[in-house]
Design brief:
The chain is α+β, with helices and mostly antiparallel strands and 317 residues long. The chain is 14% helix and 21% strand. The protein is built from 3 helices and 11 strands; from the N terminus they run αβββββββαββββα. The strands form 2 sheets. A 6-stranded mixed beta sheet has the order 3-10-9-6-7-11, with no helix packed on it. Strands 1, 2, 4, 5 and 8 form a 5-stranded antiparallel beta sheet that branches. Bound molecules: copper (II) ion. Copper (II) ion (CU) binds next to loops. It is found in: Secreted. Its cofactor is Cu(2+). InterPro entries: AA9, AA9_LPMO. Keywords: Carbohydrate metabolism, Cellulose degradation, Copper, Disulfide bond, Metal-binding, Monooxygenase, Oxidoreductase, Polysaccharide degradation, Secreted, Signal.
Length: 317
Amino acid sequence: MIHLLLAFSLAALLPVFVSAHGYVGSVTIDGTSYPGNEPGGATNPSIIRQVSTIDPVKGATNPSLNCGMNATLAADVANANPGSQIQVHWVGGSTGDSDWPHNVGPIMHYMTQCNGPCSSYDSTNAEWFKISELGLEPDDTTWYQANIMAGQPANVAIPPTIAPGGFLLRSELISLQLAVSVGGAEFYPACIQLNIGGSGTGAATSSEECTFPGCYTDDEAGIYDPDIYNPPLTYTFPGPPVAAFVGGNASAGGSQPSGSGSGSGSSSTPTSGSSPTPTSSGSTMCYLTARSTNEESLAKRRNVKRGHKRRLVRRPN
Ligand SMILES: [Cu+2]
């Protein structure tokens, strides 16, 4: 009888899990909208590299951590400029007709140079630098990702001093509702093909860059979070710091939609207006503890990253 009940319960839950993922439905650059393609669906010209499924990338060494699940080159490249305001519209479900389903975890944006047209650039070994990171709102309880779940885009500005050329913009949501176990984190990366104009000279240094996979490890703070449901919360972002040339107020100026990103230099603040309360669906709630701020775990994390970099250097290709 109990087994029967269990079977019924699982059957009832299953459709929820199947649809509880998503992808980038469209991107808006300085007011111009660029549609994406449905995962695994028809391929129309786009600036967003198409992924094969709405399912998350699992595991920090997964090759799909680069640009999303089995991402393929996109045909188009959008023009943008230093300081351009970009909205990345994350949507839920296989056709994007529902809101993004997760509200626990960070929003980060990276860039890498394409060394030519981004429509033909294989980013497998690309060196990425971070231009923004957003975790917890000032209440140390609500994640900015809750705004995405409430239907807001992820906002990010192109660094105002960046040197011109072809660049991939990598938008990434990490959903941590299962991150109490190693390997539980869900990675959702997406790559957007840009051609940046202007006459800037800004660039990241090599120590601010890393590869995907390579930037993360499964057991580092910010990805493996056993205390995520134990407030108060302090979040340690995975990956490198925001590149110094991005500047402290790179995207915090008047053109930013609203809200004040805390913590990170460049901040892509999801438009606020609404200030979603932390939601709990079923057994998942959104808390992360302050354990990772002590010196010991920070030092451990640095060692892990150094070891990982060495491993990457030795990789034959
Ligand atoms: Cu999901």
